[in-house]
Amino acid sequence: MESNSTKIAKIATKMAICNRNEEDELKRFYNEQGIKVTAANMGGNINSSISKILESALVAAKRNGLIREEHLHEGAVIGATRDAIIQISTRANGLNVGGKIGIARGGEHISVCIFLSIGLLHLDEVVIGIGHRSLPV
């Protein structure tokens, strides 16, 4: 049987890899199941974009009602986002990236997934990172 943390991590990943039309459909679908989701586009040089990635994840989570505006909730989103950044940073170090941040919250579980395409000459590399935290409901 799948744990709730695994389920929420998979949903965050779906949000990070979907296109805009799918994003709206997934929001409706998961909302009916009591799971809140959101996504935000991102891009630029990874080294100079880290603070923007953190800010984008936090703003998206607040705007879409995944978290409350309080220290514990904000810290959970920042921590999960930092974990995801750490996982992608060595592959993307110094390079331009473009992609999406997907966030899902179900009960006490919140996951942040970052899916990126890394521009390297005429080749495109892809990388994915994910972080998870538990929050009181």
UniProtKB/TrEMBL annotation:
The keyword RNA-binding belongs to this UniProt entry's keyword annotation: yes
Keywords: Activator, RNA-binding, Transcription, Transcription regulation
The keyword RNA-binding appears for this protein: yes
Tree of life domain: Bacteria
Entries under Pfam families matching the protein: HutP
SUPFAM superfamilies the record matches: Hut operon positive regulatory protein HutP
Function summary: Antiterminator that binds to cis-acting regulatory sequences on the mRNA in the presence of histidine, thereby suppressing transcription termination and activating the hut operon for histidine utilization.
Family per record: Belongs to the HutP family.
Subunit description: Homohexamer.
Name by which UniProt lists this protein: Hut operon positive regulatory protein
Natural source organism: Clostridium gelidum
